Amino acid sequence: MVDLEAKKPCAGLLPVAHPGTELVEVDLGALTSIAPFAGQQDAVSVALQNAYRLGFPAPNRTTGTKDRRLIWFGRQMVLLAGPAPAAALQKNAALTDQTDAWASVSLSGNRAEDVLARLVPIDLRRAQFGTGHTARTLLGHMNASITRTGADRFLILVFRSMAVTLVHDLNQAMEAVAARR
Amino acid sequence: MFSGLRIFKEGLTGNTGWSPHWRDPAPKAEYDAVIIGGGGHGLSTAYYLAKNHRMTNIAVLEKGYIGSGNIGRNTTIIRANYYLPGNSEFYSHSLKLWEGLEQELNYNAMVSQRGVINLFHSDGQRDAFVRRGNAMRAQGDDAELLDPEGVRRYLPYLDFDNTRFPIYGGLLHARGGTARHDAVAWGYARGADRLGVDLIQNCEVTGIDIESGVVRGVQTARGPIKAKKVSIVTAGRSGQVAALAGLRLPIESHVLQAFVTEGLKPCIDHVVSFGMGHFYISQSDKGGLVFGGDLDFYASYAQRGNLPMAEHVMEAGMTLMPMIGKAKVLRSWGGIMDMTPDGSPIIDKTDTYGLFLDCGWCYGGFKAVPASGYALAHLMATGVPHETARGFRLDRFRDGHGLMDEEGTGAQHNLH
Amino acid sequence: MRLTCPLCGDRDRREFYYRGAAVALHRPAPDAGVAAWDDYVHLRDNPAGETRDLWHHEAGCGAWLVVTRHTVTHAVLEVALAQDEGAAG
Amino acid sequence: MRIDGKGLVDRSSPIRFQFDGIGHTGFAGDTFASALLAKGQRLMARSFKYHRPRGVMTAGSEEPNALVTVGTGAAQEPNLRATTLEIYHGLEVRSQNAWPSLSFDVMAVNDALWPFLGAGFYYKTFMWPRSFWEHLYEPLIRRAAGLGALSGQSVAERYEKAFAFCDLLVIGAGPTGLMAALTAGRAGADVILADEDSLPGGRLNAERHAVGDMAGSDWAAQATVELRAMPNVRVMTRTCVTGAYDQGTYGALERGAGAPQPGRPRETFWRIVAKRSVLAAGALERQIAFADNDRPGIMTAGAVRAYLNRWGVAAGRRVAVFGNNNDAHRTALDLRAAGVEVVALIDPRPKASGPKGDFPLYAGAMVEGTRGWLGLREITVKTGGGIVRLAVDCLAVSGGWNPTVHLTCHMNGKPTWCDAIASFVPTPGAVPGLVAAGACAGAFSTAACLAAGAQAARDALAEIGVTSAPPDVPEADDTPYRIEPFWAVPGAGRAWLDYQNDVTLKDIKQAATENFRSVEHMKRYTTQGMATDQGKNSNVAALALLADATGRGIPETGNTTFRPPYTPVSIAAMGAGGQGMGFAPRRFTTSHAASVQRDAPMVEAGLWYRPSYFPAAGETTWREACDREVRLVREKVGVCDVSTLGKIDIQGPDAATFLDIVYTNTFSTLQVGRVRYGLMLREDGHVMDDGTSARLGETHFLMTTTTAAAGLVLRHLEFVHQALRPDLDVRFASVTEQWAQFAVAGPKSRTLLNDLLDRPLDNETWPFMTCGPITLGGVEGRLFRISFSGEHAYEIAVPARFGASLFDTLVARAEALGGGAYGMEALNVLRIEKGHLTHAEIHGATTAFDIGFDRMVSANKDCIGKTMAARPGLTDPNRQQLVGLRPLDRAVELTAGAHLFDRAAPARRAHDQGYVTSVAFSPTLGHAIGLGFLSRGRDRHGEVVRVVDALRGKETLAEVCPPVFVDPQGGRLRG
Fold it and tell me: What pTM was estimated for this model as a whole?
């Protein structure tokens, strides 16, 4: 028998804080990508509604709250964050466990937008990218999922193996922004 | 005749004795051969037709001014470091021609054999470069394998300690180097002109006349011109010109950017290329760092580059040799590259009798200028391919024989 | 250059991978013959003007896109999902 | 000379700085140029070719002469413009391109040799003897050329890049730009106002014009305050928009202000995306060509006014003004008003009537020559009444103003010639979404600029659906700009056009004589316009003079193309983030820390890091460790992290059908719980990648790819699905990162696993090429009985959070069984012994036929690449085919990259038969082995070939053999 110990992607790397911004690792619970099969999106939507009272998010949007959230995750795919996937989803969609595939961090603070403006090639200012908006885009040279979860708070996901680069890039930008005033 | 003595004499007499480097003749009604395109390849073709094959009743038809295409929009590198049969012998020949070019043309094109160093960053890359270096040696060209210490001796300014992809070594090609690109065009132009070739500028070809499968001449902005032989030497516009003859080519046009910095005192003495991202650099005699990277990757005729690729090139420079960081980019430009499915060029006849093609140079066209003209002239004059250019067949893609995919990226035009 | 992804919206060129002419959508039958396959894999119209080509929103939603654009001006005229343009189109 | 009471510098903030070791004091708000001019120092630099003494000519970033070096060590920065370099406490500036000193530069001997150094002289000489070019001429030329020097040290300061988005980008914060930004800002639009200067206002700060009821500079300051207070407006000073790119993208360089500070970026390179933009970049003044017009003290008239009005500095004590337009006349008035002696106002226009002042106006006169080597002493003026010599220390020159059209040309637009201003104006529409307004569009009066800025903003906003109120445009000077083209003073001496590159009118004429008549030819032959100012000061005049020399009009002569960047951009800024590790993301496996702890050297594998080998106590070379690791796998059990291989989850009713399309072999027949090796081709018939795919369920597969090709394969699958077969119902998800996966290989692998797994394995339920779920300690994982090493082996996968823990456990258990961890070196040896392939063999130019896998291309179905793989050239029996190689002398090594020749043939290309792809010392066999490609290789097993590695000076004979060296029947992996 063996007792395996779990380790978080950003263990030992976070949190970090600079004037105006703070970066912490977040535990989103289970992550499951849900890709409805052909013609099944409505059925999946109903199943999601029944299981979690969450609507199937439109492109570039997220639904739900901190504990249970659906994040649009790309073409024909959403990411369920929080609960384990309901069995009812199984027949209408490809479900893939992604719980361990992503490093998840939360960047917050009144300079968070400025920090991300150094790394992300889309307009993340609140007027354009409000709470509940999400995007698949780049952060530096990494593919990322970026979601605004609050007035000055972003949820950022990149591949787990890139956690060191994620923290490095964000930390550098946080320092540079802080040094500006 | 150009010489130091002549400069001295002219200097003493008010520099009043200089004359045009080439004439501006009116087009004749008929030539033995017409070359469409007054770039490096077209001009060298004309020169060698006249010089090697005594064909002097020929014309070069240029849409703009002599040397207005990629001969003036490149990073000026010359080298013979190809490894696949077909390429190997051709570029070897070209380098030999470069080595005697200035004396041949009586024009200082500043051929500078300062050495080309290709860096590698893994065991696998080293093995591939050893394969290449051994092919170069088997061809009779020079190649030397450098270990990291060897690289450090030549290029002490590289970041050996904190770079993303550590330097495992390099392949030194000592006879490679650079040349002053415009002067190559002008030297061939002057040389061809002296041999009687008509260089006709501002003369766009608007049609290619073909009767019963035989080429008869061309229609131009300056009127029709009859010709027994016509060559299309218009890299960057090959598809458009070939379409005038009803040809569809295995070519997609892509922009390749290049950059030059402000003048600096000597700091980079070789041509250096990075193996983990396209980046290559040398320093011009004027002091500017001349560097470039990969294609912009989308089909374009716009002769200008996009920002993401420019940034990528600079990032590569910063990880490899961060001492260049405070050099300032003065100018960027984009050349239009004929990209083929295997990354290698085409010098061949077409199904139309008397119509020839010289195209598909991807981004290796500059170094090929002497040998391309030499080989095309041979083909036009004799009807058979020159021994160094037999591999550049147009039909190799269709039948799969003799593909020269040096990068191993396959039949996607922009990946070479 | 910027492309408007039908799913993600207006995005920087750096998020996209470029493949080549949209001719790749129309794969010949295995027995279509040498010429048809040579056309498909190698030969290109390569217009200096309007063209259709294939891009992948690799750093975005993952959709393959058919982009209609101008190769001289770089004007982007239309962006559509390849899934809607493909075999049917 | 500083004038009391004038200028916008802060006299209460003195600032100490040094130039060539000598201390100076300036004020906050000074540039290096203004501070030195205030001290009466005119000499600041040397020219490029003739090393002529030079002073400051302009007051902006277009400065061609006064280039200096700042800082020492890694912070050394060459080629900074004295005119934009803001002084700060402790600033150390050095002159450049002069030796031994700025005032005595031995290379100035070139100036005496000028008759021999004219346009393109170097194309005509230095050709004999041939070898002298690299060894003598070129080194001499290179040393003499260049401007400042790099330090040779890695950049130590921080640079950064950033993105910004807006409705309206206003480029330039002069009267036009400020008015445009105010108009748009007040309308609520999202605005960025960018200006390269530290102080918004443009020429308003350099002139004495009023705007409304206040001084122009005060109005600019007030407008800036208003703009900064608007939440929808960003005012970006010290930010030069350097390039216009497609779809409203602009590059812009922001300089850090003042002394370098830790953590603070020196420069920021912005990528600004704007729905619309207003170019309000103003205009640049041009010189007039006359003999010796380059001496320190000769400046543009606008610069003289700028130094006077903005910095309170008189550029000389006795100043003459020479200009062909009314604008220049103001210079004399401004100087007089400040109490500076104006020696003469010289206007070549015969009917020029100037302002009345206590200085002589010479109409129809021109400056013919000058004297003063290190600084202007005297000018010679040809007047209607004869030659007049005037003692002056400053000459303000204006040949007219050129609109700053550059950005409008960045997308291949050509500007249009405008006779009224004798210059080029932007061609409307040249950059989609950009409108040029104000001086950069040829409207030169302040009133016209203010009105144009407001209108341009309103028009731009209207296009994107933002309505704005008609702006309240303040009143301002509306004096018409009158000019008669005047390019050069006739005469014999050298008249400079491109100051820095030392291009004179003689050079232009010589180029024309030599038939470099095209403007591009002239530029490239003479280097006119190729200096650091890119011809901003001289191109228009040069092409006017070329037109003259070739008997053409200016429009037919055309112009050269302006390309990005508008002002030079440091590589460190545009390449920010790339230095060191930032060039590409680093990917770490879950076992990384454990490997490092075991002293394993970590090597790059694509973006990943993998352990090379795990040195044991007493081992001094990698080979010792590698050999041991190979043996422990062959004899006991080894553990290797294989998580980096790509893993793609494939689900859907049509998943099996889909795999049959992308793989050459058939997967629809694969049983659930079984694994199959698959080969994937590119459509051109060459091998793309290989790997195993496991059928986890009826409609569920897990595909593995090589580490390097993981992204490429997923993209390919998406392409085949979305573009070619959207009718198939199948979905993909990368799960490379979800699973930590370890190879457990060797005769004791099952023993090891059975100690760990919640349910033990046996050979019947877990034969070779099976897969299934397992649990260990309650953790749900997956097990695959597959083998890259050729041994009885498994790959065990657990969710990545348990990876580190599982690796430790596996290695500890393996060590207890006499085995241990193995790294990439051993992995490579093991696979070569088995003839398994990597990208050394599948390098993109090999076919299934070449590697002996042609029977894996199913005859019963189509697949990607099948048709093209059947081309005659790809199935030619003479192709190079995969073989094994064994050195005849078992004691020698083989080297990868060596080429193969017939035993008796010379090692020349014509006889080249192939090459070695992979080599290893096989501890199992006790000698070197290799894989390679050899022409007709499969038919030549048993033959002896010559293996030549000329690069390493090695050569040996080797026997050709099948490419499987160990256990060709595969008994070990099934046992």
Answer: 0.97
